[in-house]
Design a protein that fits this description.
Elements lengths: L2 H14 L24 H9 L3 E5 L4 H6 L2 E5 L8 H13 L4 E5 L6 H9 L7 H14 L21 E4 L5 E2 L3 E2 L8 H4 L2 E2 L1 E4 L4 E6 L2 E8 L5 E5 L16 H11 L5 E5 L14 H7 L1 H21 L18 H14 L2 H15 L20
Parallel strand pairs: 1-12, 2-3, 2-12, 3-11
Antiparallel strand pairs: 4-8, 5-7, 6-9, 9-10, 10-11
Helix pairs in contact: 1-2, 5-6, 9-10, 11-12
Length: about 375
């Protein structure tokens, strides 16, 4: 595993060891960017390690179909995709040989495991933090009840799949079978499963306790559809468990050894038409390269603005220095007289200055002493 992947995956292990809970980490589901526990940025990094080029997309349009060789979709709802979305993927697979789609229905959330791991280290937390973590764990344990509804008109089952709950679900798989099970420590992986897949005519690559968890539908052109029952070994926090990473590597290997262009499709309605031109903020959210450039420009602009910003407060006059210049005495005296802004005060300053200059010569009268009214001019 490269340093880049380790930086995105390894932080999760570090987070799990933290004692501070506060409001808890981000739990948004399916985002391929950021550090959400339920995001997929770590899996995206694995694909990049394999040499693939990746990007995020929120709309299934010509720009995606013309650019991508592979579509990865972590769906926001359980079950098969809706009819229209399923058709889009079907026609995408027919466009070119070796095009592939990875579809992961929503049937797992990793934040419950996160808070459970946090509470396994109570000695590192205070009482208030422990109470807070318990409340988060209690709330996250009901993730099944909070799952969205399945599509009202799902894609055809004979082309896709159906799902069905496993007895006693959600539960931890006790045994794995199938080609993908080789080398996986099932006891250490502790895969949580809620629903299994049912795909007539599909090839089963991984089963848990005899129930299909990963299935494949091959196309005559050489491409295919891979369906993973849940993100139990693909979400960010799930990959913090090293025993699950071999399964994530299996998905990356299935995409293919050659460098490919992989589009992570995000959002709830990727086929919805844009009502207006995308805004700058929308483009920044969708385009990683543009966002990086914008951050650099913003920092440079802020630095330039601070450099040219007006200075607040009264300006300070430069201090006059002697510097070996005889005229400096007169300059300093002139500045002092100007600051006085009073004739009598200025006259007194000149008298004091003249006396100081001729100290020790009492016979020399000051040139600046006021004339006596009785003195002849």
């Amino acid at each position: 595993m490269t340093r880049r992947v380790a930086s995105r995956v390894g932080w999760l292990s570090w987070v799990l060891a933290l004692a501070g809970c506060g409001q808890g980490p981000d739990v948004d589901y399916g985002a391929s960017r950021g550090s959400s526990l339920n995001g997929v940025s770590a899996f995206r990094a694995i694909l990049e390690q394999h040499g693939h080029q990746t990007r995020a997309a929120v709309h299934l349009g010509e720009d995606v179909s013309e650019w991508a060789d592979v579509i990865v979709r972590f769906a926001p709802q359980p079950g098969a995709p809706g009819w229209e979305e399923g058709d889009w993927y079907h026609f995408f697979l027919m466009e070119e040989p070796n095009f592939k789609v990875v579809y992961v229905p929503r049937d797992f959330e990793a934040d419950h495991e996160y808070w459970t791991a946090i509470l396994e280290r109570p000695d590192t937390m205070g009482e208030e933090q422990i109470d807070d973590a318990r409340e988060h764990r209690r709330w996250s344990s009901s993730w099944v009840a909070r799952l969205p509804e399945k599509a009202e008109k799902p894609a055809p089952a004979h082309e896709w799949f159906t799902t069905g709950p496993i007895a006693g679900s959600p539960g931890v798989v006790k045994g794995l079978s199938g080609p993908w099970s080789a080398g996986v420590d099932v006891a250490a992986a502790r895969l949580a499963v809620h629903e299994s897949l049912k795909g007539e005519g599909a090839k089963v690559l991984l089963s848990g306790d005899g129930m299909p968890l990963v299935i494949e539908r091959e196309s005559p052109e050489g491409g295919g559809l891979l369906v993973v029952a849940s993100g139990g070994f693909l979400l960010n926090a799930a990959l913090a468990n090293p025993a699950r990473r071999p399964l994530a590597e299996r998905v990356a290997d299935w995409i293919g050894p050659e460098p490919r262009r992989v589009a992570f499709v995000e959002g709830g309605s990727p086929l919805a038409e844009f009502s207006e031109s995308p805004t700058l903020w929308g483009l920044l959210a969708r385009l990683d390269g543009l966002r990086i450039v914008a951050i650099h420009l913003a920092v440079a602009g802020l630095a330039a603005a601070l450099y040219r910003a007006p200075r607040l407060g009264r300006p300070r006059e430069p201090e006059l220095s002697w510097g070996g210049r005889p005229v400096a005495h007169a300059e300093a005296l002139g500045a002092l007289l100007a600051r006085a802004a009073d004739r009598d005060v200025a006259q007194k300053i000149l008298v004091d200055y003249d006396r100081w200059r001729h100290e020790g010569n009492p016979n020399r009268a000051s040139r600046h002493e006021p004339s006596s009214p009785n003195r002849d001019p």
